[in-house]
Design a protein that fits this description.
Shape: globular
Structural class: alpha/beta
Pathway: Amino-acid biosynthesis; L-methionine biosynthesis via de novo pathway; L-methionine from L-homocysteine (MetE route): step 1/1
Strand content: 5-15%
Number of helices: 27
Keywords: Amino-acid biosynthesis, Metal-binding, Methionine biosynthesis, Methyltransferase, Transferase, Zinc
Distance between the termini: 77 Å
Pfam family, one: Meth_synt_1
Radius of gyration: 26 Å
Protein name: 5-methyltetrahydropteroyltriglutamate--homocysteine S-methyltransferase
Enzyme class: transferase
């Protein structure tokens, strides 16, 4: 019985790649230094899987930014603004596409399906001249081969690549991206030919878009693509991998009929309905890669249950055709429990990070072959029982409070226009009010202070003094820039979700449970293992301190319940919405305490609301109902004069705009500039929005500093579709990843643009 891993985390157990990337970007190290760190990590990963007994080990999963951008490089699909002149794409062009440079902006970044991972969106059109411009897939295969490891090279499949792309600027939005299939397949053929020549016996195409609701012509594109590739693939074993949800019946039918394909991989954790399709119509003679080990969460696999599932599948496909696999890439989970020092032994026994999941996959494969490790299975069963019975998991009072929410939709007593009038009388803001999203740059010194306080190397008094000084500096800077609604900069927070989770019951935290979000950006998701409540106020002290430093409105900064949920590793023993309602009640307590402390503007970020939207349209309404309801619960009790903001970023919001309106926030700030202002199209199409709204005026994930004229041009585009009295001016997102040398001039340009347009609007009256 064979075993397979769809993909593996690439940052390294101690975030080695993150630090190497940032050192290279800061010109403190060379390209060779970066490549050496990456090669050492790849070697370690391949050896680990080989030593664990994994048969099908992946290669070409090690991206310096993301796998879709790698594919863009492979196809030579570089937008003209980057002045690439052909040849092998190097780091300068690659990272300019990802991050922008001094003269041109980055490409759009958006969420990878319903995860917190991101990818750079390809910009395509009929004028793109595709060419084989990155040989990374072959290079990595040869690199592993030289180490004695035979790998399965992985490519983003041609159809999914096109479906994940967008028309380039200047190309009609109705342009059929699939019409480019004939243009990219010759390059795929070249890659396949080189991999065959290098000695590859298997190749994996990731086609995750097959789990989405596809139209007939989109499904036909899969049939066409693999028919065209069939002769090139001759002599290779070909695996088509899907993940993140069920494969719909029509897509399953199309997939399993593809020519030249040897094996099919399915997510059997989030795609339970796919099991029924496999049982009724899986093609004979084909390999089934059964994704029974969860690649997106950190809970130890229920080995007995998975073994039972595998045994039933074995009867359908045969012992020699069944391969035990992860449900998706392990990129979405933490690296290795061996690095954990903060978690107690009971909680550790409930968990499995990527390294442990590799062991689970192989243990299941061996058990199917009759070599069951009885001690390993017994320990797993004990841990499963311990988790179910633990008093740490259940809190009866919390469960009763959440159950009592039923029967109300939790809306504020007055409509938004009435509230905005009351708020304006109190706040007295100018038209086009300026603000930022929350965080300011996290300096080396600030990180050192937090680190030393956590390690008990400095006293609480010294820590509070240092954070107070940082807040004072940020407040003073905003006043000098003449920003209208201020933030305290969040110097006490390393991460917006981690900060709140550390103060809520039912959460556990890792020391090194880092997960890549995009580029070098890593997050350390909390683990929600039990019922959630708020023992004490979490932000009132810092927000009150910041408000005391200024006469301008100071935003209280909170993370919303849906974002805390979607950016955590969530317990899998109850429905997600039940956990979300519990978090909402905890945030509600905090909102009301902030209001009592005199904070008149409270921002409740829901950056990840869109991210959690199910991949299938039939499941959208249920999710949006409880997600939006959870947000409303948090602020239902505040006065009309208290202004509730929310923030969303880096997703496609156009298809959920009516649910965003239904959140009933007073003001929403939302990512706009990096996505080519596509958010504005919904307003051009007639959607009426009556609350305050601040589409981002510049991209904070790029070091590029926008000009006053550029920002003014963006604001004018917004004024063409939005009423002057509801428009806010703000960046796309928080500023923590930027340097002050970038932030100061960018914010000055933003404020100057707003003031310039105010003057023009006033003179036009």
């Amino acid at each position: 019985m064979a075993s397979h891993i769809v993909g593996y985390p690439r940052m390294g157990p101690k975030r080695e790649l993150k630090f190497a990337l940032e050192s290279f970007w800061d010109k403190k190290s060379s390209a060779e230094d970066l490549q050496k760190v990456a090669a050492d990590l790849r070697s370690s990963i391949w050896k680990q899987m080989s030593d664990a007994g994994i048969k099908y080990i992946p290669s070409n999963t090690f991206a310096y930014y993301d796998q879709v951008l790698d594919t863009t490089a492979m196809l030579g699909a570089v937008p003209p603004r980057y002045n690439w002149n052909g040849g092998e794409i190097g780091f300068d062009t690659y990272f300019s596409m990802a991050r922008g440079n001094a003269s041109v902006p980055a490409m759009e970044m958006t969420k990878w399906f319903d995860t917190n991972y991101h990818y750079i969106v390809p910009e395509l059109g009929p004028e793109v001249k595709f060419s084989y411009a990155s040989h990374k897939a072959v290079t990595e295969y040869n690199e592993a081969k030289a180490l004695g490891v035979d790998t399965v090279p992985i490519l983003v499949g041609p159809v999914s690549y096109l479906l994940l792309s967008k028309p380039a600027k200047g190309v009609e939005k109705t342009f059929n991206l699939l019409s480019l299939l004939d243009s990219i397949l010759p390059i795929y053929k070249e890659v396949i030919s080189e991999l065959k020549a290098a000695g590859a016996s298997w190749i994996q195409f990731d086609e995750p878009t097959l789990v989405k609701d596809l139209e007939a012509h989109q499904l036909e594109a899969f049939t066409k693509a693999y028919s065209v590739l069939e002769s090139s693939l001759s002599g290779l074993n070909v695996l088509i991998e899907t993940y993140f949800a069920d494969v719909p019946a029509e897509a399953f039918k199309t997939l399993t009929a593809l020519k030249g394909v040897t094996a099919f991989g399915f997510d059997l954790v989030r795609g339970e309905k796919t099991l029924e399709l496999i049982k009724s119509s899986f093609p004979s003679g084909k390999y089934l890669f059964a994704g029974v080990v969860d690649g997106r969460n950190i809970w130890a696999n229920d080995l007995a249950s998975s073994l039972s599932t595998l045994e039933s599948l074995e009867k359908i496909v045969g012992k020699d055709k069944l391969v035990v696999s992860t449900s998706c890439s392990l990129l979405h989970t933490a690296v290795d429990l061996v690095n954990e020092t903060k978690l107690d032994s009971e909680i550790i026994s409930w968990l499995a990070f990527a390294a442990q999941k590799v062991v689970e996959v192989n243990a299941l494969a061996k058990a199917l072959c009759g070599s069951k490790d009885e001690a390993f299975f017994s320990a797993n069963a004990s841990a499963q029982a311990s988790r179910k019975a633990s008093p740490r998991v259940n809190n009866e009072a919390v469960q009763k409070a959440a159950a009592a929410l039923k029967g109300s939709d939790h809306r504020r007593a007055t409509n938004v226009s009435t509230r905005l009038d009351a708020q304006q009388k109190k706040l007295n803001l100018p038209i086009l009010p300026t603000t930022t999203i929350g965080s300011f740059p996290q300096t080396i010194e600030l990180r050192r202070v937090r680190r030393e306080y956590k390690a008990k190397k400095i006293s609480e008094e010294d820590y509070v003094t240092a954070i107070k000084e940082e807040i004072s500096k940020v407040v003073k800077l905003q006043e000098e820039l003449d920003i209208d609604v201020l933030v305290h900069g969040e110097p006490e927070r390393n991460d917006m979700v981690e900060y709140f989770g550390e103060q809520l019951s039912g959460f556990a935290f890792t020391a090194n449970g880092w997960v890549q979000s995009y580029g070098s950006r890593c997050v350390k998701p909390p683990i929600i293992y039990g019922d959630v409540s708020r023992p004490n106020p979490m932000t009132v002290f810092w927000s009150s301190m910041a408000q005391s430093m200024t006469k301008r409105p100071m935003k209280g900064m909170l993370t919303g319940p849906v974002t805390i949920l979607n950016w955590s590793f969530v317990r899998n023993d109850q429905p997600r919405f039940e956990t979300c309602y519990q978090i909402a009640l905890a945030i509600k307590d905090e909102v009301e305490d902030l209001e009592k402390a005199g904070i008149t503007v409270i921002q409740i970020d829901e950056a990840a609301l869109r991210e959690g939207l199910p991949l299938r349209k039939s499941e959208h309404a249920f999710y949006l109902d409880w997600a939006v309801h959870s947000f409303r619960i948090t602020n239902v009790g505040v006065q009309d004069t208290t202004q509730i903001h929310t923030h969303m970023c880096y997703s496609n919001f156009n298809d959920i705009i009516h649910s965003i309106i239904d959140m009933d926030a007073d003001v929403i700030t939302i990512e706009n500039s990096r996505s080519d202002e596509k958010l504005l199209s919904v307003f051009r199409e007639g959607v009426k929005y009556g609350a305050g709204i601040g589409p981002g005026v510049y991209d904070i994930h790029s070091p590029r500093i926008p000009s006053t004229e550029e920002i003014a041009d963006r604001i004018n585009k917004m004024l063409a579709v939005l009423e002057t009295n509801i428009l806010w001016v703000n960046p796309d997102c928080g500023l923590k990843t930027r340097k002050y040398a970038e932030v100061n001039p960018a914010l000055k340009a933003m404020v100057d643009a707003a003031k310039s347009l105010r003057a023009k609007l006033a003179s036009a009256k």
